[in-house]
Design a protein that fits this description.
This protein is an alpha/beta fold. The protein folds into 2 domains: 326 residues, Rossmann fold (3-Layer(aba) Sandwich), CATH 3.40.50; 98 residues, ANL, C-terminal domain (GMP Synthetase, Chain A, domain 3, 2-Layer Sandwich). 31% of the residues lie in helices and 23% in strands. The chain contains 11 helices and 20 strands. The strands form 5 sheets. Strands 4-3-5-6-7-8-9-14-13 form a 9-stranded mixed sheet, sandwiched between helices. The chain has a 4-stranded mixed sheet with strand order 19-18-17-20. A 3-stranded antiparallel sheet has the order 10-11-12. Helix 2 crosses helix 3 and helix 10 packs across helix 11. The longest helix is centred in the first third of the chain and has 22 residues. The chain starts with 7 loop residues before the first helix and ends in a 5-residue tail after the last strand. The chain binds 5'-O-[hydroxy(phenylacetyl)phosphoryl]adenosine. 5'-O-[hydroxy(phenylacetyl)phosphoryl]adenosine (DLL) binds next to helix 6, strand 7, strand 8 and strand 12. 5'-O-[hydroxy(phenylacetyl)phosphoryl]adenosine binds next to helix 6, strand 7, strand 8 and strand 12.
């Protein structure tokens, strides 16, 4: 397949040149942060490191980490590195768990962020001939604005739908010949379900590609979405703290996401000790933003567990790849002492012929954790015969036990009874946190 790039010189740069570029940018960025962000200057002083000690990326390990707790401490303006007059935008996380993050952007920050998203769209086969339907939420969330800006840069006809109103999404998609869909994977799956209900299939919609991210999703889920929508589904990664989507994106090989390394320097660390791990080892992903002006986080701990690889990619990009995040250091559930990732439950469900419509409920009764998984039956398997339901529940619980090493109580529930999400799906209800 012929490859297209949005910024070929950067995306296919020889690794040695890339590292040189990163080094030059890092030296400048550390000085910018030290001079303008009192909060980080203090952290550097405490660690006994000065901008003059940083000569290139080989010195990165000398810098202190920045964590979500620092962001909370410094809320709202404590990490701002530019005067308000130079800032044009904020975005923020939803803060539903009380951990609101506010990120600031200069016009240049917005520009570079949109370039990153444009790279993702072009890697997914997009060009100015495409109609790009952006069904990520607009507003404080970065998904809508990021892909919207990227779509403009590529020159696509952009449909700024935002999330929700699924019937209207499908109508615009078909009436206006949308060829690229951008939304969360769970919303893509829901659009697929709704299409099916309308008696429509992949041949009734013009889509060819989807750019899905903002939440964990499995390879099995990818295949499900690709089949129901008749598209190629590409992953995209990012977080509010680093601008939003577009920190990393998938190419035609679909074997991990290329990190836009000319803008974001990635490290993997041991989450317990902070030690930097060699390429190929699993650990916490840490980013240093090399160009961000207004909110230039250095060595920011994402809490995403991940692996990096610089294996040669058939797409010709030299940018290092990150695997799909395997969970977060903070959303990994520990149930009766066992580590459980929601993605493992999803894998079991898809392997067993269920849809990934489920909710994990964890509680603590008499000092013992309870672990329940509510799973929707598909319309095909729906039955009200109790003995059949009990046997299906038992089978599913067994498969989960094999995958997780811990026995859940599975409840099968009626199709469509678990509330659908137009943004990120709520997969876990952990009642233990309320104690
Ligand atoms: O979710 C930004 C985004 C928007 C990414 C649209 C992709 C597409 P936050 O709301 O700050 O930002 O959440 C960031 O979401 O640390 C990951 O844990 C998770 N996440 C983001 N993308 C992926 C992905 C946006 N492709 C947090 N796979 C991150 C798995 C993802 N998890």
């Amino acid at each position: 397949m012929a490859q297209n790039y949005y910024q070929k010189d950067r995306e296919t740069m020889p690794v040695e040149d890339l590292k040189k570029l990163q080094s030059e940018k890092l030296v400048k960025q550390v000085k910018h942060v030290y001079d303008n962000v009192e909060y980080y200057r203090k952290l550097m002083n405490e660690k006994g490191v000065k901008p003059e000690d940083i000569h290139g990326i080989e010195d990165l390990h000398k810098l202190p980490f920045l964590t979500k707790a620092d962001l909370r401490d410094a809320y709202p303006y404590g990490l701002l590195a530019k005067p308000i007059e130079d800032c044009v935008r904020i975005h923020s996380t939803s803060g539903t768990t009380g951990r609101r993050v506010v990120a600031f952007y200069t016009q240049n920050d917005v520009d570079l962020w949109e370039d990153c998203c444009a790279r993702a769209i072009v890697a997914a086969g997009g060009s100015n001939k495409d109609v790009c339907q952006v069904a990520y939420g607009y507003g404080l969330f970065t998904g809508g604005s990021g892909l919207h800006g990227g779509s403009h840069k590529v020159g696509c006809l952009t449909l700024p739908m935002s999330s929700g109103n699924t019937d209207r999404q499908i109508q615009f998609m078909t009436d206006l010949n949308a060829t690229i869909l951008c939304c969360t994977p769970s919303y893509a799956a829901y659009i697929g379900e709704t299409l099916k209900e309308k008696g429509m299939g992949p041949n009734d919609i013009p889509l060819k590609a989807g750019i899905f991210g903002a939440e964990p999703w499995t390879e099995e889920m990818r295949r499900g979405i690709e089949d129901t929508l008749g598209i190629k589904a590409y992953d995209i990664y990012g977080l509010t703290e680093t601008s939003g989507p577009g920190v990393a994106f998938e190419c035609s090989e679909q074997t991990g996401m290329h990190i836009n390394e000319d803008h974001f320097l990635a490290e993997i660390i041991d989450p317990d000790t902070g030690e930097v791990l060699p390429e190929g080892e699993k650990g916490e992903l840490v980013f240093t933003a090399l160009d961000k002006e207004a909110f230039p986080l250095l060595r920011y701990r994402t809490r995403d567990i991940c692996v990096l690889s610089r294996k040669k990619c058939s797409c010709g990009r030299t940018l290092i790849k990150m695997a799909k995040p395997m969970g977060r250091t903070d959303d990994m559930l520990i149930i009766r002492g066992v580590n459980v990732f929601p993605s493992q439950i999803e894998t079991v469900l898809l392997n067993e012929g269920y849809q990934p419509n489920y909710q994990i409920v964890v509680d603590r009764v008499n000092n013992t954790d309870t672990f329940e998984v509510n799973v929707e039956m598909t319309p095909e398997m729906f039955t009200d015969k109790l003995s059949d339901i009990l046997s299906m529940e038992k089978n599913l619980a067994n498969s989960m036990k094999i995958m997780l090493g811990i026995n859940p109580k599975v409840h099968l529930v009626a199709p469509k009874s678990i509330v659908r999400s137009e943004g990120k799906a709520v997969r876990v209800i952990d009642k233990r946190k309320l104690v």
